[in-house]
């Protein structure tokens, strides 16, 4: 089919059957229809003709393109948490709409009371005073000065026995403890709420060195104290051993040897006939020699103490003038208030020790990506409460058996031999 549409040749108009003088004639309107069709096609393609539009002058003061209304952005967390389920969530009493307190099952309370009264009934929430007023008019009551502002409300007279046996009584006196400050056991960064500059992720060299030296001194002091305690315990152990081994009297040696031999013989004889695997419970009875030794030791200690006191008295007598002068000076001075001794623990145990929060030179970095966080919020909170004296320190106690286990050999198997 070719692009050009070949128009049909116009057919010869049919001659009218009527006469020339007839008022109706066959008129050819094909050109008019063609023109109208062309206009319709042009209107479909191009739109309305500019001639048909309003020719009035109009100022266009608005943009032709409307601004696209963008939807507000939602957070990803809220998008995840949104309930996308088609099933509705369970109703909860908290989220339900508040009930109207003035209605009972959809009926107003006033209407309900009126209906009950009409039927001669009585409602539990009905005021007795209002009923009395409706029935008798004014009620006899105590006269009160309505214009007296200073008049105080009279307290209800409650018998003493009811007050004494009441479950809850209102406190009349403020406790003294509310006015006193909490006892600060130790002072640290948590109680003072100040952090050392050396603990920063990128500290200055001076502050970092100062913190290192400070922590080193604290650790050095603790280590010295630990070593001194260990040496002191060792010394006490040595003294206890030497005290047991000291021979006070020569005659006691022979008695000890005889007793030792007797005990050894007894043990050997018991070994052969012992029926239990466990060691026998020995009742340690003090022998005569041991008692004599202890008595002599007590006498010697007593003599040493008496000699020490005598020496001190002699020294005081020689410096009597100096002592009297010091006493006079002390009396003349104003008595200074005794400072309260600071406690380092609230109960049986001291607060937990703070861990070292010092970074070494290789751990320091100027980049936050390589930063290793220090400390623990839960640990810091517990330490703060213990240091400020609000809670007492505790230590974990392991469960132990009250009595040790014993191995016994049952003889019931011999019954089947």
Automatic annotation (TrEMBL):
<dbReference type="GO" id="GO:0000027">
    <property type="term" value="P:ribosomal large subunit assembly"/>
</dbReference>
<comment type="similarity">
    <text>Belongs to the NOP53 family.</text>
</comment>
<protein>
    <recommendedName>
        <fullName>Ribosome biogenesis protein NOP53</fullName>
    </recommendedName>
</protein>
<dbReference type="GO" id="GO:0008097">
    <property type="term" value="F:5S rRNA binding"/>
</dbReference>
<dbReference type="Pfam" id="PF07767">
    <property type="entry name" value="Nop53"/>
</dbReference>
<comment type="function">
    <text>May play a role in ribosome biogenesis.</text>
</comment>
<feature type="compositionally biased region" description="Basic and acidic residues">
    <location>
        <begin position="263"/>
        <end position="273"/>
    </location>
</feature>
<feature type="region of interest" description="Disordered">
    <location>
        <begin position="326"/>
        <end position="346"/>
    </location>
</feature>
<dbReference type="GO" id="GO:0006364">
    <property type="term" value="P:rRNA processing"/>
</dbReference>
<feature type="region of interest" description="Disordered">
    <location>
        <begin position="248"/>
        <end position="282"/>
    </location>
</feature>
<feature type="compositionally biased region" description="Basic residues">
    <location>
        <begin position="9"/>
        <end position="24"/>
    </location>
</feature>
<feature type="compositionally biased region" description="Acidic residues">
    <location>
        <begin position="248"/>
        <end position="262"/>
    </location>
</feature>
<feature type="region of interest" description="Disordered">
    <location>
        <begin position="1"/>
        <end position="26"/>
    </location>
</feature>
<dbReference type="GO" id="GO:0005654">
    <property type="term" value="C:nucleoplasm"/>
</dbReference>
<dbReference type="GO" id="GO:0005730">
    <property type="term" value="C:nucleolus"/>
</dbReference>
<keyword id="KW-0690">Ribosome biogenesis</keyword>
<feature type="compositionally biased region" description="Basic and acidic residues">
    <location>
        <begin position="326"/>
        <end position="337"/>
    </location>
</feature>
<keyword id="KW-0539">Nucleus</keyword>
<dbReference type="InterPro" id="IPR011687">
    <property type="entry name" value="Nop53/GLTSCR2"/>
</dbReference>
């Amino acid at each position: 089919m070719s692009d050009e549409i070949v128009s049909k040749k116009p057919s010869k108009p049919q001659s009218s059957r009527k006469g020339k003088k007839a008022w109706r004639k066959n008129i050819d309107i094909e050109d008019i229809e063609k023109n109208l069709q062309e206009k319709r096609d042009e209107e479909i393609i191009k739109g309305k003709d500019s001639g048909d539009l309003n020719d009035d002058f109009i100022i266009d003061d608005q943009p032709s393109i409307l601004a696209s209304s963008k939807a507000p952005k939602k957070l990803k967390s809220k998008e995840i948490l949104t309930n996308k389920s088609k099933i509705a969530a369970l109703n909860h009493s908290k989220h339900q709409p508040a009930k109207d307190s003035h209605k009972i099952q959809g009926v107003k309370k006033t209407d309900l009371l009126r209906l009950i009264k009409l039927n001669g009934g009585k409602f539990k929430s009905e005021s007795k005073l209002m009923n009395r007023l409706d029935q008798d008019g004014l009620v006899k009551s105590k006269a009160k000065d309505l214009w007296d502002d200073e008049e105080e409300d009279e307290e209800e007279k409650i018998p003493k026995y009811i007050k004494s046996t009441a479950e809850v009584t209102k406190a009349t006196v403020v406790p003294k403890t509310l006015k006193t400050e909490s006892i600060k056991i130790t002072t640290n960064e948590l109680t003072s709420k100040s952090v050392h500059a050396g603990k920063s992720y990128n500290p200055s060299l001076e502050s970092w060195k100062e913190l290192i030296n400070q922590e080193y001194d604290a650790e050095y002091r603790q280590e010295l104290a630990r070593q001194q305690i260990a040496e002191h315990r060792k010394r006490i152990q040595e003294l206890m051993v030497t005290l047991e081994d000291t021979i006070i009297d020569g005659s006691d040696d022979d008695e000890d040897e005889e007793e030792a031999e007797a005990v050894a013989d007894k043990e050997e004889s018991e070994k052969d006939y012992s029926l239990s695997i466990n060691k026998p419970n020995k009742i340690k009875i003090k022998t005569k020699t041991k008692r004599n030794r202890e008595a002599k030791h007590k006498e010697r200690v007593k003599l040493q103490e008496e000699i020490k006191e005598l020496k001190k008295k002699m020294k005081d007598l020689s410096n009597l003038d100096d002592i009297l002068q010091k006493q006079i000076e002390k009396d003349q001075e104003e008595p200074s208030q005794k400072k309260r001794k600071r406690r380092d623990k609230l109960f049986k145990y001291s607060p937990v020790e703070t861990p070292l929060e010092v970074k070494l030179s290789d751990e320091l970095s100027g980049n936050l990506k390589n930063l290793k966080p220090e400390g623990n919020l839960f640990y810091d909170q517990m330490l703060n409460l213990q240091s400020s004296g609000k809670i007492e320190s505790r230590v974990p106690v392991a469960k132990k058996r009250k009595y040790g286990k014993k191995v016994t050999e049952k003889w019931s198997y011999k019954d089947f031999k």
